[in-house]
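task queued by scheduler; priority normal; single chain, no ligands, no partner chains; default sampling; output format set to structure tokens
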Amino acid sequence: MNIIGNLTRAPESRTVGENTVCNFDVAVNRDYKRDGQPDADFFRVAAWGKTGENCQKYLDKGRKVAITGEVSCRAYEAKDGTARASLEVHANKVEFLSPRGEQTQDAPTEAPHEYADVNPDDIPF
């Protein structure tokens, strides 16, 4: 499965045994509106190992990503007793689509980041 969307919150990492897993939520906008309001699907993403470490290091709320991976669905009971379902994508590949330090228009930053000047002589290629 491939999804493209924006992170709804900052990623969180934890260690499971000897492996690191980074979890984050992605909102994928639908092409139509419901009752005049934009509609979206929400996916929980789990990225393991080096991919997860890079996600933790470089992603933040509002950043746009493309995810390729397998989907699993889990049913659970919410605190209020209602039946719910959760979609989780086990990421094989995560592509960062927002330039570093830039948020999408869907999720503006609280404090914009500036680009640093780069001396062409410092570029290694």
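post-processing summary
- The first helix runs from residue 49 to 58.
- The radius of gyration is 17 Å.
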